[in-house]
Design brief:
Blueprint (H helix, E strand, L loop, with lengths): L1 H15 L3 H11 L5 H16 L1 H13 L10 H15 L5 H8 L7 H7 L2 H4 L5 H9 L3 H11 L1 H11 L5 E5 L6 H10 L4 E3 L6 E4 L9 H4 L3 E3 L2 H9 L7 E4 L6 H10 L4 E6 L2 H5 L1 H8 L4 E5 L15 E7 L14 H4 L2 H4 L2 H13 L2 E11 L8 H11 L3 E4 L8 E3 L2 H4 L5 E7 L1
Parallel strand pairs: 5-6, 5-8, 6-7, 8-9
Antiparallel strand pairs: 1-3, 1-4, 2-3, 9-12, 10-12, 11-12
Helix pairs in contact: 1-2, 1-3, 1-5, 4-5, 4-7, 4-9, 5-6, 6-7, 9-10, 10-11, 14-15, 20-21
Amino acid sequence: MVRTAVLEIYEEVRREGARADQALQRVLRREKQLRSVERRAVSDAVYGLLRLQGRVEYLLSKALATRKLALNGLATPTQHLLRYAAYLVVGEQQSPDSAAGLAGPEIESLKWTLELVARPDALGAPDDPLDALAAETSLPRWLAQLWSSQLGADQTRALASALNQRAPLTVRANLLKNTRDELIEALKAEGSRVEATRLSPWGVTFTGRTNVFALKAFKNGLFEVQDEGSQLIALACEARPGQVVVDGCAGAGGKALALAGEMHNKGRLIACDRDGRRLDEMRPRARRAGVHNWEARAVPESSDARIADLAGQADVVLVDAPCSGLGALRRNPDARWRLDAAEVATFPPRQLEILQRYSRLVKPGGRLVYATCSINRAENQDVRAAFLQSHAVEFTPVPALPGWPDDVQLMPHLHGTDGFYVAALLRR
């Protein structure tokens, strides 16, 4: 049953363009007979295969070429099962015999390819250095080129290695209901293995596999699931009780809820987003967290009418702009295969326009925070520089976090967080 579910989900993602998380939920919701350990195995295999898809395909193509065969010349189910088996060898370090057994009898005649995949040095690397980097790191060629040009080949390898691992499960203590230390004690009392995060003063990381949504602590609103880097963006806002705080691209409200905790439910918190349906997702989360000082505003990108009354009124404005999501590929591994360089290039002009719109809401002495979940200079440092070039009289850079520079690029391989960027500006 595990391999059948993996095959169906992978087909939906690869051939039909479905999002991996949505396809996974759809299939697992239907297959109610799967035990929890089998569901976890399906999830791990799908996400693991998507992370290492580039590496797996390169090795399989080289192996098949030794007998003048081509991967795309095989029947589609056989292709996918062979990819699944190769992932088990490459990503899970299983033996070729074990991997072939799990993949099924359809690939028995191709088990020899797995024996070659298990010895990648014997298959060699592409002659072109960029192709070799892409194959080694399981990145599409355009992304290997982007990151190697901005970070260098060695940093790209280290970054890709981190992005090709399962992301840690991190939560944020809800300061309206408990401290982090109290949350840790509550989670340990429920049998969870947890530890405090290194950078965020609010964060707790689960060191064992846990269904956090079934925990009593979650149902009682003691925490929210939130990456440590996302928590640091909320921390960079320096929101305080009694202030007017605007979250300009709030989405489902993860950072807005963190801001409410910093505000102690005092003052005005305005969560804005162009998609009112995303804001609706925040309502049950806010109720569970005990947040009541917030309001939602659906703000179309074509008009400022819904935020005109806030012009020059906000103590804090957060613009967590729509972005490519290149910093969150360990959580959304299918995104690297959906995106391309042309699509990524469409984000910076839009990000700058949104930043300029919401900057008008900041009052003198107020704080403007710009953030993305991308690792891409064009979406991050270049947008900040372009904004300052035209707003240098109004805004000046300030440290994003105490003891940190004016802008910060968080990196999975350096900080353990998702790849967030955050910059802070003070209105003169």
